[in-house]
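Sample pair:
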Amino acid sequence: MSKFRPIDRDTPMPLPSVQELLPKGHLARYIVEVVEGLDLSGLTEAYSGRGSPPYHPALLLALLIYAYATGCFSSRKIERGTYDSVACRFIACNSHPDHDTLATFRRRFKAEFEAVFVQVLQVARENRLTQFGRVSLDGSKIHANASRHSALSYGHAEALEAHLKAEVQQLLALAAQTDGESVPDGMSVPAELQRREVRLAAIAQAKAKLEARAAERFAEEQAAYEAKLEARAQRAVVTGRKPGGRVPQPPTPGARPTDQINLTDEESRIMPVAGGGFEQCYNAQAVVDTASLIVMLPWVTQEVNDKQQVVPMLERLQALPADLNQVEQAVADTGYFSANNVAACAQVGIEPLIAMGRDAHHPQWSERFSEPADLPADATPVQRMQHRLKTRKGRAAYALRKQTVEPVFGIIKSVMGFRQFLTRGLDNVQNEWTLVCLAWNLKRMAVLCA
């Protein structure tokens, strides 16, 4: 007799239902409860009702959110999860939406996902998980679905274009020979010509896009140049003497040899990444509530510098419903600092706490207990913010930035595993980032409700 337990896979095994297998308080149960309580009319009304009955948007949305929250972003892997995962089976009601259905649903409803995102924020507020009074702003570079080696610079495009045109002339001269003895065996001159014409057309298209970008950049630089000249002229009138400093130099029109475009995802950009080096990325931004770590606003930009993102943040905050638009204080690192950004926050009644530079690593111990001198009555918004950052209360409020928005990016990248966009193009990437932050919010809300 064997000393081991028998292996018997032939006898039918009675299994409990999916409802019984999934424990109480599971994340999948919470996501289903929240999603089915939302107003999804914008999604349901988009279906015409023709053909075979589709999956309900509440099922597909809950399945996508749970998959993203648990680090599964591929539509094929999500489809596989409806067979392998008890939680996915529970959400999908033991059905199996295929990867094409999931991918189409994810790509189709950008505006509707943004409306769902706002509804989830309202659920968090109604459940008293947060009041959205203090927020932190930060950005993180996330890899695009493209390699930096697929980038083409304007200078290299011109050199390659000249080389291909020279080869075309050589091939035409070869084709003009009547004897044809100079043509190598197996070579088709028309095929070689066509191959180079296709490449020349692609290069011309890439150059045209780079030139269009250069024209937009020149218009912005020209406006900034004229504003600087006007400011110098006004300063000369006020002071009665020639302003000091260098005279602003006019911008140069046209594309630069170093201007680049990616042939795989032309809307992504080469950006510096943490740890050194450059990669093909997008700059993902997030406004995070200080008290709850819930993402209040997600968006994606092609700008490498974060300084231009404060005004878009304020515009997005003003567009939120009245019960969410009650931010009193905004915290950001030195990459967002400019006098215009500080003034813009003050104009909408938000108290800015934007670092104006890097602090010393080992300050004198007495500085932690000191208070700055009183402000003059005619202090500028920047001086008022600088004074606020030196107070004990201001230092404590700014210190919360490192334990709010930075951990959110860290968890999204390292725990959820979202380090690269799967889609291409700015609109699609924006939609994907909204889904990622929506999944994070529900994952966080489940913890806060536990």
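The two ends are 51 Å apart (CA to CA).
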